[in-house]
What we know:
Keywords: Melatonin biosynthesis, Methyltransferase, S-adenosyl-L-methionine, Transferase. One of its GO terms (molecular function) is acetylserotonin O-methyltransferase activity. Homodimer. Pfam families: Dimerisation (PF08100), Methyltransf_2 (PF00891). There is one protein chain. By secondary structure, the chain is an alpha/beta fold. It folds into 3 domains: 1-69, Orthogonal Bundle (Arc Repressor Mutant, subunit A); 77-123, no CATH class; 141-320, 3-Layer(aba) Sandwich (Rossmann fold), CATH 3.40.50. It has 16 helices and 11 strands. It has helices at residues 2-6, 9-15, 21-28, 32-44, 63-68, 78-87, 89-92, 95-101, 106-110, 114-124, 126-148, 168-176, 188-191, 237-250, 272-278, 289-297, and strands spanning 48-53, 56-61, 158-162, 181-186, 208-212, 225-229, 256-261, 263-264, 287-288, 301-307, 314-320. Strands 5-4-3-6-7-11-10 form a 7-stranded mixed beta sheet, sandwiched between helices. A two-stranded antiparallel sheet has the order 1-2. α14 (237-250) links the parallel β6 and β7. The longest helix has 23 residues, at 126-148. The protein starts with a helix and ends with a strand. The model has no long low-confidence stretch (mean pLDDT 93).
Amino acid sequence: LFTASKMGVFDLLQKSPGLDAVQVAAEIKASLKGTRSLLEACVSLGLLTSEKSHQKPLYKNSTLAAQFLGSDSPFSLHSYILHTDNMVWPLFSHLENAVREGTNQHEQAFSKEAQDLFQDTYYDSQALKLRFMNAMHSIAKVTGKAVATAFDLSTYKLACDLGGCTGAIAHELTKANPQMSVIVFDLPAVVEIRERFQPQHMDTDNRVSFIAGDFFKDDLPEADLYILARILHDWSDEKVHFLLKKIAERCTPGCGVLLSEIFLNEDRTGPSRGLLQALSMSPGRQRSAQEYSSLLERHGFTVKDIKYTDNLLDAMLCVKV
Length: 321
């Protein structure tokens, strides 16, 4: 998947479906043997389809690939795939060490400390920063509508999306809720280049605003609904409780928290995407819906509803009591 995306196979077959291995190899400038093996592997995974013509297989994108893998598809995950190839896959080259030590392998994979790598991603390289934002934007576009429409949010007028990056979920929230305005609260380096990701000609634009800050260090904007989408799983228990305490102190009774994460089965047998993600050994951890409920309840919230969305992320709505 990573290699085919990086070499432009899905983009090529989106533009010119029905090519044979010789034609694909010529276009992506690769060996015929290697290209044929890559194409056949992609067919076996359901990423491509093939049909015989004059005894030669002709390759096309599968429905799945056409929807998610072309770089210009409306719900493209291309940027997220490239980010994962560059930043996550190298960690899995050191999986044995990760399992033995129970620690992330950033230093072994990238020859620098995890904190230094984080700083590099956001500050030292514009290209890395844009790649990361493109990755987060692509995931948010795919999951945004499912999260924004999971619950009836008609009683909330002002939401704050903590770590909301490019505002993709914020725009989905305003589309689904005409009464709502959304503040996206994220790091200054992210807010500075948000314009590159803003949708064109949307009547909800003036209801989405951006404030720069660090949700661990700075005061949180006032809101009656706080959004935590793909945030809590990244951080240690200590930082998770610190952040939830800050939110709880900012909330009055009736304020809500919309949490969106991968919810593990209660017996921790799936879904595999969450359990595999946990093997990267970030400071955080993956949790079940009940574990997330317990976290929020410790800080004075009660769970109003839980939604398994059949998308990449699930959702939970909690209310301050």
